[in-house]
Amino acid sequence: MDNGHEHEHHDHEEIDPSELLQELGAESRTQIFLSMRQQNLELLDLASRVAGYSGEHAPLKGDESEKAMRTIWKLYSEFYSWIDPEEIEEDDEDEDE
């Protein structure tokens, strides 16, 4: 009966703390990345609704789709700047160089 407990204890001894921290760090970075992507999708959805390009309507023709994309991008960028103004400032600094 003690063999099961010894085996469990033995497994815990083999874990390298630095490896565990690396795994947790990678998992945290992955979660942050996925959360940011989800946020971007939600902002794009919001921008398309505000621009009036969601729901039931006829397909866009020719230059209408380009205009729609510009409008949605403009709204998306504005919403994004409200959420992460520091990143927008960094982008502006990069453009100034």
Radius of gyration (CA) equals: 24 Å
Total helical elements? 4
Shape: elongated
Largest sheet: none
Give the SSE map.
Elements: H1 2-13, H2 17-50, H3 63-83, H4 85-96
Helix pairs in contact: 2-3, 3-4
Textual characterization of the structure:
Residues 1-15 have a biased composition (Basic and acidic residues). Residues 1-23 are annotated as: Disordered. The protein is mainly alpha-helical. It has one domain (2-96). 81% of the residues lie in helices and 0% in strands. It has four helices and no strands. It has helices at residues 2-13, 17-50, 63-83, 85-96. Helix 3 packs across helix 4 (85-96). The longest helix is centred in the middle third of the chain and has 34 residues, at 17-50. The protein is elongated and about 65 Å long. The N and C termini lie far apart (69 Å). The mean pLDDT is 79.
Annotation keywords:
mainly alpha, 4 helices, 97 residues
